[in-house]
Each structure stands twice: as structure tokens, then as C-alpha cells.
Design goal:
five-stranded antiparallel sheet, 23% strand, Creatine Amidinohydrolase, alpha+beta, 5 helices, binds magnesium ion, four-stranded antiparallel sheet
């Protein structure tokens, strides 16, 4: 069942999502060679709680076993999503996708950004650039009167025409009081299919794009998803509200990109 949001609810979603944007910026400040992903998680959890919110990922139930043990997901290089922060030390040339979720005043925020660690190979940097562009192309298609398939079609076309892989097994989603609500928002699909979007529909759009083949496998920890061929993957995510014209982007990369400066993708 799809819950359309009132203007007041959209403002609550915006507040939670802006906190996610600011949390990603705190993480951006500490990403460098030599830092562990566990340290990124510590920074994120502290910042979220200091701002009166709760990290929604912590304790998130899994259909396969243990609940998620950390406040953010950190997916390094061939990891696509749901990487568990730990003792992995980031090194020059790595990429790390950081996915962050908050709950503040009863409403959820959800946004992700893929960071470069120092200098990164040009083909990998291009993967990040195309994934971020694909996110905004998806958002351009999230308007009242269009259908959900229009978003997926646009993202898929943009990425596959450039020979990147589009992950099918994980998708975007409705968002509100729950982090994952209906509808599902795939990054692939056919134009003119799926539910028609209405004003007040709030969704997270999150292309997961690979440098090689699109197929993924789950690692032994029951959470981390990586590419089967171990080529790099990128993940960018915004939470948006559908309106009559251009979608209202509720999360923000502005804070992150202020930290990254001319190193931003
Ligand atoms: Mg997310
Ligand atoms: Mg999400």
C-alpha cells in the first residue's frame, strides 16, 4: 500500500534527510587512506545521535540471520551495498559507498554517496560519475503523471548504453515513517509501466551500477553484496518527493560536496 505524504510530513522527511546529508559530510571529512570503515561508522553514529536522531540501519532485521550491526553501510570497491563497517583499512585508489539512514521525529532519511579514497583510476571515477548522473536522470523522470517504470527505464538506458551493469536484485523504495515502504523503485524497467506517480509520493531512488557484469552475490556475513566478477560498483541515493513539476529532492549532497571541493565527482 502506497502512503502519499502531506506537506507537513514532507517537511519532516526533509529534516531527517538533511541530517543524513550532513552526516555524509562528517564522514567525507575523515575518509582518507589508513582509516577503517569502523571509524566512519563511529563518526556517523555519534553525529546522528548528537542531533537527536536514531540510525535506522542499526539492528535492522535480516531475512537471512543477524540484524545489521552498524549505523551505516560501507561497501568498498567490488562491494555494491550493505557492507558492514569493520577493520577494513581504506587505501589509496579505493572507492567506498556509504549508505546512511536516520529516523528523526518519526520520519526516515535515506541517502548514499560513493567516495574516492585519494586518487582513483579513471575508469572507476567515470563509473562514479555515470552512477551519479543516472540518479539525477531517474529523478527527472519522477514527476506526477509518469509511471515508476519511466524512472527505471531512464536509469537503465543511460547506464547500459555506456556499457555499465545495472544491478537488479536491489531497488529503491517508498519512504516515510518506515525506511522501506511501497512501492519498489527498480533501476531498470519499461517506459509507461508500473504505478502512476502522484503528488506526495516519497521515494528513495538509488542506482547501483557496476563496471563489469551486473550479477551480484552475497558474502558469508549474510549482508554484504558484491559483484560476482569482483569489478567495482557505485551507489548514489536521494530521497525525493514527487510533485507537479520537478521532484523535490529532500536529501542533499551539498554538504558532502562542500567538504570534497574540487575532488567531488
Ligand atoms: Mg540507503
Ligand atoms: Mg534506500
Amino acid at each position: 500500500m502506497i502512503f502519499l505524504k502531506t506537506n507537513d510530513e514532507i517537511e519532516l522527511l526533509r529534516a531527517s534527510n538533511l541530517l543524513v546529508g550532513k552526516t555524509l559530510a562528517e564522514i567525507a571529512k575523515v575518509i582518507k587512506p589508513g582509516v577503517t570503515t569502523k571509524e566512519l561508522d563511529r563518526v556517523a553514529e555519534e553525529f546522528i545521535r548528537d542531533n537527536g536522531a536514531v540510525p535506522t540501519f542499526k539492528g535492522f532485521p535480516s531475512p537471512y540471520g543477524e540484524p545489521f550491526p552498524a549505523s551505516i553501510c560501507t561497501s568498498v570497491n567490488e562491494q555494491v551495498v550493505h557492507g558492514i563497517p569493520g577493520d577494513v583499512v581504506l587505501k589509496e585508489g579505493d572507492i567506498v559507498s556509504v549508505d546512511c539512514g536516520t529516523c528523526m521525529n518519526g520520519f526516515c532519511g535515506d541517502s548514499a554517496y560513493t567516495f574516492c579514497v585519494g586518487e582513483v583510476a579513471e575508469d572507476v571515477r567515470n563509473l562514479l560519475k555515470v552512477t551519479k548522473e543516472a540518479l539525477y536522470i531517474g529523478i527527472e523522470n519522477a514527476v506526477q503523471g509518469k509511471r515508476l517504470g519511466d524512472i527505471g527505464y531512464a536509469i537503465q538506458q543511460y547506464c547500459e548504453s555506456r556499457s555499465y551493469g545495472v544491478v537488479r536484485e536491489f531497488v529503491g523504495h517508498g519512504i516515510g515513517k518506515e525506511m522501506h515502504e511501497d512501492p519498489q523503485v527498480p533501476n531498470y524497467g519499461r517506459r509507461g509501466t508500473g504505478a502512476m506517480m502522484k503528488r506526495g509520493l516519497c521515494i528513495a531512488i538509488e542506482p547501483m551500477i557496476t563496471l563489469g557484469d551486473r550479477h551480484v552475490v552475497m558474502e558469508g556475513d549474510g549482508w554484504s553484496v558484491r559483484t560476482k566478477d569482483r569489478k567495482c560498483a557505485a551507489h548514489f541515493e536521494h530521497t525525493i518527493a514527487v510533485s507537479a513539476g520537478k521532484a523535490d529532492i529532500l536529501s542533499s549532497f551539498e554538504f558532502v560536496e562542500e567538504v570534497l571541493g574540487d575532488q567531488a565527482i
